[in-house]
């Protein structure tokens, strides 16, 4: 206490000075319009800086939700691309072809790539509209796999990198089509069998889906031809494809919904049973 | 002692009255930016006895400043500037202390310390006061050019007026 009094005797005038100036400035800011404006404006500049920094940090923590919205946008864009591919069919129909395919953005939450039969798990399930036998594509419109089974909120996907994978594919600009399969060589490479050798192909040609199934629309990118041979006595090429998508690091995926899949499958079954 | 207090209070009232009634009415401009104000009220604080405790100076300055502000309808601006001037007044006096030192009871007037001392005392204090005043009035150094011009012109006219007043009223107490 004595020290406090000593301190006050010694520095009392300085403290008083500070107190009086604070009072004065309070008066100035509260009762003078010009000064008040400047004060508010300056503090806005300061507050703006702080808010900006805060937003930067929040943006970082919000990346997840931002990614989600970007994925939704991407899904719309890819839908449009597919629709454009089909729009050239130019057969007017009562149902708009533009809405034949729709995409569900999802996140890959589990995946294997180095097994003989690889699978993915997606974070959307039947509640979000994912059904078995739907195609799954990743970034760059590249294929990833086909939905095998679904629970309420999750979907199990057969990866392209699976010994059971058989996907109808084609080479861009050519008419022939073959079957895409994986021979357990490398997670970046797949093979095409059954591509007829009378079609001329070259290394570097783009491999796309043929659209001969209900699973994938045609024109989706798969990869480029890396190498091809014609085995002696065969009518078909043996093609090695380098995939566009690196399935070892896939984090986002889109499930393709085909609105008319059931119709097509039903019709084809009737044909078989005849 | 009582006499000193009474003298100072009367001087406060007179200086405030002159400032408010006469000099507040006179403002003229040079060009668009420079406003010339006659700022003579710091004299009230400057003429308090040499060894007045700082706390007393500060409180007096606050009161005088607030009263001036009431008439200028600019709450706090003059008070803030005058409190600052009061705060540094004793430092200035110590800085320009003559060889023979001060007589503690003396008031720092032209009469007691001579023209040379008083001119340096008045010019330093008044310049600081006016600069602080215009800075607070502008409230932002964005307007430095305006502050600078206002300070220079107002200082010149105020300085002349105060110096003349000291020749006319030979302040001894």
CATH uppermost class of the largest domain in chain A:
Mainly Beta
Query: What structural category characterises the helix and strand content of chain A?
Result: alpha+beta
Question: What fraction strand of chain B?
Answer: under 5%
Helix/strand/pairing category of chain B = mainly alpha
Q: How do the helices and strands follow one another from N- to C-terminus of chain A? A: HHHEEEEEEEEEEEEH
Q: Under CATH, the topology of chain B is which?
A: Arp2/3 complex 21 kDa subunit ARPC3
CATH superfamily of the largest domain in chain A: Rod shape-determining protein MreC, domain 1
Architecture of the largest domain in chain A, CATH level 2?
Beta Barrel
Approximate helicity band of chain A: 25-40%
Stretches with pLDDT under 50, minimum 5 residues of chain A: none
Rg value of chain B: 16 Å
Mean pLDDT of chain A, rounded to whole units? 80
What overall form of chain B do the CA principal axes indicate?
globular
Question: What labels would you give this structure?
Answer:
heterodimer; A: 274 residues; alpha+beta; Thrombin, subunit H; 2 domains; 6-stranded antiparallel barrel; 6-stranded antiparallel β-barrel; 4 helices; 35% helix; 32% strand; elongated; B: 173 residues; mainly alpha; Arp2/3 complex 21 kDa subunit ARPC3; two-stranded antiparallel ribbon; 7 helices; 2 strands; globular
Report on the structure:
Chain A is α+β, with helices and mostly antiparallel strands. Chain A folds into 2 domains: 2-61; 96-273, Rod shape-determining protein MreC, domain 1 (Thrombin, subunit H, Beta Barrel). Helix content of chain A is 35%, strand content 32%. Chain A is built from 4 helices and 12 strands; from the N terminus they run H-H-H-E-E-E-E-E-E-E-E-E-E-E-E-H. In chain A, the strands form 2 sheets. Chain A has a 6-stranded antiparallel β-barrel. A 6-stranded antiparallel barrel of chain A has the order 6-7-8-11-10-9. In chain A, strand 10 (221-229) and strand 11 form a beta hairpin. In chain A, helix 1 crosses helix 2 (33-61). The radius of gyration of chain A is 32 Å and the shape is elongated. Chain B has a two-stranded antiparallel ribbon. Chain B has 7 helices and 2 strands. The termini of chain B are close together. Chain B has helices at residues 2-21, 42-46, 54-72, 77-95, 110-113, 115-138, 144-168, and strands at 27-30, 34-37. In chain B, 39% of the residues are buried. In chain B, strand 1 (27-30) and strand 2 (34-37) form a beta hairpin. Chain B is mainly alpha-helical. Chain B has one domain: Arp2/3 complex 21 kDa subunit ARPC3, CATH 1.10.1760. In chain B, helix 1 (2-21) runs parallel beside helix 3. The chains are: A alpha+beta (274), B mainly alpha (173). At the A-B interface, helix 1 and helix 2 of A face helix 3 and helix 4 of B.
